[in-house]
Amino acid sequence: MIGLALPAPPPADDVVRLRPWRAADVPSLVLAYRDPLVQRFSWRTTPYSDADAQHDLAEHEQARRRGESLACALVDSHDEHRLLGGVALHDVRRDHGRASVGYWLAPGARGRGAATHGVRLLARWALDELGLARLELTCGPDNEASQRVAERCGFTREGVLRSHVPFQGGRRDSVLFSLLPGELR
Ligand SMILES: CC(C)(COP(=O)(O)OP(=O)(O)OC[C@H]1O[C@@H](n2cnc3c(N)ncnc32)[C@H](O)[C@@H]1OP(=O)(O)O)[C@@H](O)C(=O)NCCC(=O)NCCS
Fold first, then answer.
1. 47 falls in which pLDDT band (50, 70, 90)?
2. Which of 106, 125, 126, 144 is deepest in the core (most CB within 10 A)?
3. 33 lines ligand 1 (CB under 6 A)
């Protein structure tokens, strides 16, 4: 197996469900990426258009087929048309038993645990079904909400990666977290 795919039925709990991205999600995606908090912590350029979103979804699909990443829409578990945000496994290195986790929420979906629930579902699948031995999560040192999501899921803060990524015209440090099998909360 090279490509990555969510199981059927896809991971869900009483709050959220993961599902593949659809072309019909483009307008919600464009709206969500306009949010100042997403802009502040994101690499994405503004303005973000329908064409940019379509391009991103096509890239996600190609990377999924190559087995490099799996980007999932995070939707309400009772209404799969209600987009809450996104969660993704990226930099998947099955030969090394390792991948990274990323996530974001639309402004109206915050403060209810949706990201925490989504990361837990994705991490459970990655550890149990893909058999990965380590999940990594990096975020900006000033992204406190993101760090709280990591900690609630059981990730351990390992340290600061200096000048880690190109970011908004300069470079940015990242806080590195990891999660090993048996540590998911
Ligand atoms: C990072 C981000 C997803 C966090 O969103 P969030 O709403 O704080 O996260 P959750 O959905 O897990 O909700 C957690 C909050 O809901 C509360 N909550 C309510 N019910 C909850 C439940 N059942 N389970 C967990 N938390 C719950 C928690 O107390 C928490 O609030 P607190 O952090 O003030 O204590 C959001 O800030 C975001 O989209 N930021 C922009 C993009 C971004 O930074 N992405 C990460 C890049 S590394």
1. confident
2. 126
3. no
Q: Give the residue whose CA is nearest to atom 7 of ligand 1.
A: 110
Whether 112 is in the pocket of ligand 1, judged by its Cβ within 6 Å, is: yes
Q: Which amino acid is it at 44?
A: R
Question: Helices in the chain by DSSP H: which ranges?
Answer: 26-33, 36-40, 50-65, 114-128, 144-153
> Of all atoms in ligand 1, which is nearest to the CA of residue 152?
25
- Indicate the fold that domain 16-179 takes in CATH: Aminopeptidase (3.40.630)
Residues 63-115: tens digit of each pLDDT: 999 999 999 999 999 999 999 999 999 999 999 999 999 999 999 999 999 99
What are the domain boundaries of the chain? 16-179
Q: How far apart are CA 96 and CA 59, in angstroms?
A: 23
